[in-house]
Amino acid sequence: MKMTTPHARNLQTSLSETVDTVMREYLDVLGEHEASNIYRLVMDEVERPLMDVMMEYTRGNQSKAAKYLGINRATLRTKLKRYDLI
Fold first, then answer.
1. Domain residue extents for the chain
2. DSSP 8-38
3. pLDDT tens for each residue of 9-50
4. Which of 5, 19, 24, 26 has its CA 20 to 30 A from that of 46?
5. What is the rounded CA–CA span in Å between residue 74 and residue 47?
6. What DSSP designation does 4 have?
7. Residue 15 and residue 2: Cα distance in Å, rounded?
8. pTM of the predicted protein model
């Protein structure tokens, strides 16, 4: 879902900039150490709070949360179980 309002565009840019900044800082801290599984690390770090916030926002309504996230309900349930949110 593309955000189109000026405020929404600023939020989207802010999120992108935040990820950019954090990833660059993380890689700087790694220095010469070999990086591995960064994709999974990032997805786990982002996905859990995303699921948690969406469930709060929808007051526990999984159908609404799945719709807002653009995923099907079964996928949402799998993710909620993975992160011990249900």
1. 1-35, 37-86
2. HHHHHHHHHHHHHHHHHHHHHHHTTSPP-SH
3. 676 678 889 999 999 999 999 998 988 899 999 998 999 999
4. 5
5. 16
6. -
7. 13
8. 0.71
